[in-house]
Description:
The structure holds two protein chains of two kinds. Chain A is an all-alpha fold. Helix content of chain A is about 70%, strand content about 0%. Chain A has helices at about 1-5, 25-45, 85-120, 120-135, 140-150, 155-180, 185-190, 195-210, 210-230, 245-250, 260-290. By secondary structure, chain B is an all-alpha fold. The two termini of chain B are about 15 Å apart.
Amino acid sequence: MTEILAGRLSQPAGRAPGIRGRGGWLRNTGVIIALAVLALILTAALAPQLITTADPDAVAPAEAFQSPSAAHFFGTDESGRDVYTRVVFGAGNSLLIGIAATAVGLGLALILGLLGGLGSRLGDFVSTRIVEVMFALPGLLLALVFIAIAGPGVVTSTVAVGLSTAPGYARIIRSHLRSVRSASYVEAATVLGHSRARIVWQHILPGALSPIFVLGTLGVGQAIVWASSLGFLGLGVAPPAAEWGAMLSSGRTYIDVAWWLTVFPGLAIVATAASFTVLGRALNARTRQEARG
Amino acid sequence: MTVSTDAPAAASVSTPATRLRSLGWIARRVGGGVFVLWAVATVIFFALRLIPGDPVDAVLGGPGSQASAEAVAQIRADYGLDQPLIVQYFLAMGKLAVADFGTSYALKVAVAPYVLTQLWSTLVLTLASLVVAWFGALALTLATSGRGRVARALGSGLELLAAAVPHFWLASLLIILLSNTLHWLPPISVPGPLGLVLPVLTLALPLTGFLGQVMRESLANAYEQPFVLSARARGESEWGVRLRHVLRHAALPGISLSGWAFGSLLSGAVVVETIFARPGLGRTLLSAVTIRDIPVVTAVALLSALTFIIVTIATDVVDRIVDPRVTEVAAR
Lengths: 293, 332
């Protein structure tokens, strides 16, 4: 999914809407909202006690299934635990999984992309075929098989998500490396007689790897959505822990009686994912504008 | 993304030479597809053997079975599991090459007909979702692109949110709203068109967001093309410009992304079919991986890969027909 949003990274800079001219303020409003949401979620992840005073695992059977109120903003679940507190404490797990999964995916993609973009003809052939095969398998199939091999759990589902996002990244990195490799300043360095290693280090890599940061920002949101899907299927974080996907999974049982168990953790996922996308696209537009000069 | 970098010859001028080159292009694509299928079969074969536990358990219905040693040995021999791994591999590949998918360990039925019926159910679901998403994205971008600032912000905001919604959450929301509160639609997928509404909406809405985001960008670019200016100069109406001139450009990324979209819909189908208790490839896959039903997983993987390859080639062909410039773009 990320490759669609970032697909134009590797192409020559075209129109970068929103930074200059018509509609710029709207885009900026969006960025400000996104940053505010991310700041809130980051606070929840790093210091949840600042936002809530309750204990996410405090069980109170007498208060089970209370609908949202002043005492419990998001209501209570089947054991009387405060859903708001659990959403706040879930931020850390979900964010960490999203970031780690994106890092795994980008790392894997970097190996494949470098092999394809800078390696020999054979290297390119091999890496392109590997990426093709990974693309042909639905991402969830890759993830499911990997989880079956390694056993369910946080680490496994994180790696699984990374694995299924890697081919998209690899394709973007490869084509970007290739376009930088044929750029005139690289040609100039070749003519000047610089060694191949030096050209790669000094000229190709810095130019080619700049989009990785943008890709990563765009990817974290999607990785969180992916990881929560695995959590929902019961393959991620083990149930008692607060994680958004796992909360949704257990809330599904009570969908007829307690809608709030489903609605609020999902809202947190959507807000996080959308904010990362907005931020990533703004960064992307900015990089392209800088590249254009 | 699906545009082959070495694609020769625009399809616009049909001379014998370009037709020949087009044939060569298709032949290369088909050859590449066969290679991918073989690689998928190989990867899946070895990956499934890495899953801890004994495959015989899948045949006997779980690790807790009290089968005698003779029975286990008999099953091992029946399914060829007593052979060395490399022999098993070549036997399996030989069978797959003639489309023999074997017998399901757990269900004890022939895999091919079983999986094909499941595929049909999933195809109906995914194709319907693709069509809905496609038209939804086209309508949304055409209606909100161009002039109005508020309309544009509303459109791209909707797309952004739609694209960030997890399938399983959307499904739950739709069930809460349309089934439990309004009682319009059944919460599980009953046979017939009515049962298809919620699953299709669940799969289509996030995809609408993705396609819309991409279409919007190419639409914005199309508005700045000279042919739009000349159409306006000829006095064409705003909607005339949109439908007759800009639409084609908005549709292009939608077409070339359909292959990717199809793959992601197959992933989404696992979740959606599980939630709505709808039979299909996704649910079959989930349960087959869980109980380690190797023949079924292999068949599902190969079928998904085959579908993906066919859709990708088809979209590339359509791409070349709709936009003769594809070859130039690809050569860049």
